[in-house]
Structures are given as structure tokens and as C-alpha cells.
């Protein structure tokens, strides 16, 4: 493969007279960043799925592209002094990869050196480049580069003392290579190509992407369903920065919940193969915990206001955001999660369906005369009750065998949603499956064990183009 004229031009910008970049706030417009992004994108075209460059005929081009990447990193590194150790290790990892003949990459050294959780300062930027796959995007470990900016407002810094989560990093996307021109809204260290698995010390979420697609999807879905949004809920659709803060608060509490509570299993379920509805309940449990905690925060702070107490600016913002998180959890779950992605073991989709049906069956959500409405005064109690039901399932399952837990979880879900008519689980698994290994249980789960209801079938058709348009979205879009 030959390097295109565009790639050659980009590399000349590096090796020629250097461009002056005044600060990290303008990096995305610099020739150094554009050359790095261009070279990384070109390199993806000759990488195999495992990240290697298997064809020796491509090694010359690969070396040229790596040299361009290294030159760009060195040129940009002075603008990121807080990442100095990481960027130096990155240069070393790229050079070692090239010198080793472009085998399966091993970027353990630079991954260990990258510690963004230590610099949770609002507005600080990071230059991130690794061979990695992007969740909800490519499963190939290609070299990807992203420019990111930390979102860490004062009220979140104070709230984190109550909901301690030292691993959580909240980010805004500035620019990126094609792997992030997808639905991926996370940056996780376990996606990086490395020779061994270290103790992971951080996990990042792109709240600007979460907020931007929420605003686009909920705006369209509200129009389609004739939903009269409460004033505060409507504010989220008109203010990107407000929505970003809302998602930071939601995800801060959600993320830590995976490690807290009565857990009968590995909280992240990394090494377990289970029926996908178990993942649905775990993700929904974390969201409903965030909802419940925000109800508590709202009541506590509002009680102080009602008593005549003056709140600090951070406390006042926390009070406002606690109410907004509740709207965000409900609308993101029922409008976006439920109809996004394929119907093949879509655990987030199932969680959205479950929340909608639960609220409908408890009489706080209404679909009447082709219009959607909520009894907002009664919604919090209904949502909290669903969270309590999942918590009770977990608590009881500490004393249950794993397979009995799976069966109990299925009964919880089927008590709200109707399984597919051909479901072996709904009809009762045969004795040979029940007496056999867990694989038989998981194999018996249909790809779409709980199909969309007629309401969602109709909504999905009307929302299909809107959902598709959010791929690659960022806060500036």
C-alpha cells in the first residue's frame, strides 16, 4: 500500500518548519494534530483486527506512518505537560512496535503511565493515542487518537466526596479518528492492546456525546408522542452544557454502583457468560440507583431551602441537577435505549423496555389517544419500587445457586414484559437443560427473547433516522 499524497503532505508539515501552537485549546486546528490523525487513520487501513500489520509489503508504509505519529506526539507534548510521562511512553511503545516488525501491539507501558483520574480539573485536555477497539464501534484494535477535555464542575467535585469514585473520568470529545465516529461514548483501558492486564485505575465517559444524542432523540420522540415536557425537562433539550452536567452526575453515581450493594457476582461480569437479560438488570440497577439517590438529594436540599437555609452555589446547582437527572434517566431509557441497536441480545434496549412497561403497568405512564403522559408526582415512587425489586433479587440470590438466580431474574423480567411466543425459557426449559451446564441455559435464550411491544414497533419506525443520525455526534453538533 502506498501512502497517499494527503498523508505525505501531512508528514511534511511535521518535518518541515514547525507550526506554533499557543496552547492546548487550539490543538485540534494545528497541523501537528491533523498530521497525527491523518497518519493514524492511514495506518488503520493496513492493520489486521488484532492490531498487527501482517503483510511485510506494508511495513515500509507502516514505518513512515509511525514516524509521522511519533513526530506529531513530540511536537504536541509540550502543550500537555500533565501527560508528559505518558506521551514519552507512547513514543517508546510506537517505536518498539515498529522495531519489532509490527506484530500484535503491546502498549502496556504507555497505558500504565496514562492516569487521567489524577487530573480531574474542569477544562484540562488530554491527547490520547493507543491501538484499541472502541465499544459500540469497531472490535478491531486499530491505532485510534482522540483529543478530549475534562468536564468536572465544582458541584461534581463536592458531590464526589459523598459518592466517592476515584476511577471515574468525565470527558468531552474535541476531535477523533474514525473509531470514535460511531456510537461509542466511553474510553476504557481494557480496550487497549497490551501483553498483560494491569489493575485498571480509571474509566472515562464522553458526557458531551451522551448529552447531545439525548437531546436530539428526546426532542424528536417528544414531538412524535405528543409529550408535554415539564419545564425543567425541556431545559435539557435547549442547553448542551446543562445536559452534560446532568449526565456527569448520573454517570458518577451509576458507575460506582457496579461495585456496591448486595452483589452475588463479579460486579462488572467481565469473566462471566450469562443470559443477556442479566446484564439488562445490572445496568438498569445502576441507573435506578442514580435516580433514587437524586430523589434523596433533591428532598434533602429542598428541605433546607424550605427551612430558610441558604445553599452555597454548588449546593444550589446540585439541587437543580438532581431533578434533571431523574428526567434524563427516564427519557434516555424509554426513548433512546429501548430502540437503539440491533435486536440481538440488546441488553440496554431490554432495560428501556422494562422501565417503560413497569411505569405503564403501575398507572403513572399513559399512552392514550396517541399521546404520552406521566403522573409526575407519582413517578419517583414507581421508579424507586422497580429499583427495590432488582435489589431484592440480588439480595436473595446471594443464597441461591447461579442457575437458580438466572431463573429468578427471568421471572422478574417476564412479570413485566411478554416473552417471544417461541421462547423455551417461557415454556419451561427441558429437564436435560436444567440438569446440564450453564451453556445450555444461555444457548436457549432467543436473540430477541423479549420483542418490542406494538408501541415500540411503531415508535422505532418513526425514530429510525433520528437514532442513526446520532452516530459520531458530539456536543458541538
Q: Could you characterize what this model shows?
A:
The chain has helices spanning about 5-15, 30-45, 60-75, 85-100, 110-115, 155-160, 205-225, 230-240, 240-255, 275-305, 315-335, 345-360, 380-395, 400-415, 425, 430-435, 440-445, 455-470; strands spanning about 125-130, 140-150, 170-175, 185, 205, 365-370, 370-375. The protein has about 475 residues and is an alpha+beta fold. Helix 7 crosses helix 11 and helix 11 crosses helix 12 (about 345-360). The longest helix has about 30 residues, at about 275-305. It is globular and about 65 Å long.
Task: Using brief descriptors, characterize the structure shown.
7 strands; 52% helix; disordered N terminus; alpha+beta; two-stranded antiparallel sheet; 477 residues; globular
Strand-helix topology:
Blueprint: H1 5-15, H2 31-44, H3 59-76, H4 84-99, H5 108-113, E1 125-132, E2 142-150, H6 154-159, E3 168-176, E4 186-187, E5 203-206, H7 207-225, H8 231-238, H9 240-257, H10 276-306, H11 313-336, H12 347-361, E6 365-368, E7 371-374, H13 379-397, H14 402-414, H15 424-427, H16 431-434, H17 438-444, H18 454-469
Helix pairs in contact: 1-2, 1-3, 2-3, 3-4, 7-9, 7-11, 7-18, 8-9, 9-10, 9-11, 10-11, 10-12, 10-13, 11-12, 13-14
